[in-house]
Amino acid sequence: MQLIASDTDQGLARMLDGYSDPAILVSANYEILATNERYRETFGEIEVDRGAHCYEVSHGYRVPCDQAGESCPLLACKSSGAKERVLHIHSTPRGKEHVDVEMLPIRGDDGELKYFVEILKPVSIASAEFSTQQMVGRSPAFNHLVDMINLVASRDTSVLLMGESGTGKELAAKAIHQASPRHKHLMVTVECAGLTETLFESELFGHVKGAFTGAVSNKPGLLENAEGGILFLDEIGDVPLGMQVKLLRLIETGSYRAVGSTQLKRAQFRLICATHKNLKEQVACGAFREDLYYRINAFPIVLPPLRERCEDVGIIAKSILGKLSPDENYRLTDSGIKLLSGCHFAGNVRELRNVLERATIFAHSNIIDVNILARCLLDAAPLQAVDQAGQWPDLKTQQARYLNDLLEHCQGDKSLVAKIAGISLRSLYRKLGLLEKERR
Ligand SMILES: Nc1ncnc2c1ncn2[C@@H]1O[C@H](COP(=O)(O)OP(=O)(O)OP(=O)(O)O)[C@@H](O)[C@H]1O
């Protein structure tokens, strides 16, 4: 135990060492009074002798978290008088990390809230810094996603991952697998899109020799590989209706038959499904069974589109470059990151990845700048095509916004703007001239 403030209740401070997770004792004015050994091992010694505030040490803020635009668990704890938790990004000796923060209130003899025990569990399923292995991000939308994954991973609950194409549903499924008690067993992915009912059934359940033309020997199904582990059904919305009944039976009874066999087999697995479709709408129009929908949807997690976490684009882009060419040490310029952060990637992280892959082909050195990126942004449109109110602006307003945004991104470089916009420089000057006239 490291005791910082001398007037701290010593017994209370010593209690921290009973926690196997990093823990600190905090006063009602956010002062850190004591830390346990596990905390110091994980987050380092607190250098300031006296008056070190939790918001300074964990975030480098000069004011409490709630005044810096974040949720403050201590404040929440003060108002509820009960245990509170939140997922925060903390500064650590290793850089920024996601941390699951739990705050417990302790009352003095007079019944007033006097101390707070803060337990800080580092979350390893995602990275807030460059990483080629994990999901990367630090925006509020991404942190919420990490929080959801972190909460459900240790359970055996079925998870439904929903989100547009390329938002990272498969990566999220892998993160759940790695953080789950089943991580020593396999996660078997079944790509449901484009499979006919027959093919789906024999892939999943296996078949016996002679079950159909071409079944020359017994073949085990993917379910056998998933035994004890995780079955990940990607694009569950594309499973043919006939197969949905068999899937439902499998989930409800844990048993199935290989194609052509009468023998009942048992399967033991955790289910994770993913879809880019709106399954509720699919249910309403009769394309997806309602009973199956409720079976797979025990814990829904929505993956936010990239345009709702623009702050993450830079760190994701750097991580993707590290993954694409580990030896090249590609560097993105700040204006390049700014350009990418302002784009509407309909294909989300996958489209960003494609843009970066093209950029590595065009780059003459390991520097990827705004000019190279502009050549590679084939489909990505600048953000804000749709109004805040969800209304489509008229074409003129839309064009004006587009050109203004682009000019800003390209730091006034009109040749570059013309190139990205796919118009001649003359035509750009004409349009800008018209805009100017209208403004006056
Ligand atoms: N947060 C992230 N950080 C780093 N890379 C990411 C992140 N999210 C997605 N990616 C990368 O983006 C690509 C697409 O991700 P993934 O395949 O998981 O998306 P998906 O939602 O399953 O797509 P689809 O619906 O088309 O199958 C992958 O290369 C993945 O590694």
TrEMBL record:
The family database entries (CDD domains) matched by this protein are listed as: AAA (cd00009)
Q: Which PROSITE patterns would you find in this protein's record?
A: SIGMA54_INTERACT_2 (PS00676), SIGMA54_INTERACT_4 (PS50045)
User: From which organism does this entry originate?
Assistant: Zhongshania antarctica
PANTHER family named in the record: TRANSCRIPTIONAL REGULATORY PROTEIN (PTHR32071)
Q: Which UniProt keywords apply?
A: ATP-binding, Nucleotide-binding, Transcription, Transcription regulation
InterPro entries (UniProt xref): AAA+_ATPase, AAA_lid_NorR, Homeodomain-like_sf, HTH_Fis, P-loop_NTPase, PAS_4, Sigma_54_int, Sigma_54_int_dom_ATP-bd_2
What Gene Ontology biological process does one annotation of this record name? regulation of DNA-templated transcription
Q: Give the protein name, as stated in the record.
A: Transcriptional regulator with PAS, ATPase and Fis domain
Q: Which Pfam families match?
A: AAA_lid_14 (PF25601), HTH_8 (PF02954), PAS_4 (PF08448), Sigma54_activat (PF00158)
Q: Name one GO molecular function term.
A: sequence-specific DNA binding
Which positions fall inside the Sigma-54 factor interaction domain? 135-361
Look up keyword Phosphoprotein and say if it applies.
no
Known Gene3D superfamilies for this protein? 1.10.8.60, Homeodomain-like, P-loop containing nucleotide triphosphate hydrolases
